[in-house]
Amino acid sequence: MKKQMARTLTEYPVWDRTVRWFHWINVLSIIALIAIGVAIMNSKALGVTTEGKILLKTWHVYVGYVFAINLAIRLFWTFIGNRFSRWAAILPLGQKYKQQRQVYLESLKQGKPVGFAGHNPLARLMVTLLFILLTTQAVTGLVIGGTDVYMPPFGDSFKAWIAESPQTEALIQPYSKEGVDEASYKQMRDFRSPFKEIHEIVFWILSLTIILHILGVVYSELRERNGLVSAMFTGKKVFKDTPVDWDED
Question: pTM value?
C-alpha cells in the first residue's frame, strides 16, 4: 500500500526485508573477500609466511561461506519474494521489459526522467550480470578452497583424491606433502587450474562491474531523486508520478 507524503511525493514499498539484508551482507562480504584476496595475491610482496598465507586463505573461505549462503538465499528468494525481488522483475526478458526499455531510452533522449519502483531496464542488465558473476565466484571459490586448504564442502573429496592410501588421508594438511601421492596431487592441481583462472578473471570483471554499479546508482539518484539509496535501508522509494512498473492489481 502506497503512502502519501506531503503534497507532491508518494511513498511506494519496494524492497522487502530479505532483499535489504542480502544487499548489505553481500556488500560487507565482498569488501572483506576483496581485502583478503588482494592480500593473498600479494603475499610475497607483503612478506606473508606460509602459516600466514594458510590463515588468510582459511578466513577467505570462512567469509566465502557467508557470501555463498547469503547469495543462495537471495537466489531462492527470486522465486518467493515480493514482485520486485523476483526473476520477472530482474531478468531483461519479455515483452513488458521491452516496453519499459523503450520508455526508459526515450526518457534519456528527451532528458525527462521517468521513475521505476524496481530496477530500471539498464539496472536489470547490471543486476543480471552481477548475479552471474557472484554465482561464478561462489562456485569456483568453494572448489579452490577445497583444493588449497581442504575445507568443506569439497575438501575431503580432494584429500581422498590425492592421498597415498585411505590411511594417510587424515595426515594431509595445507602446504604439506605428508601422505600425498605426487601423481594424484598433480592431477588435482591440473583440475583446479581452470577454476582458479576463472576465479581471478571474474574478480577483475566483478570489481569493474561494482564500480559501474555504484556510478549507476549515483547517476540515477541524482537524476531521478527517488530515494534509490535510502530504499535499501527503508525498503521504500518516493515518486511525484506513478512509477512505470507500478501496476496495482
Answer: 0.92
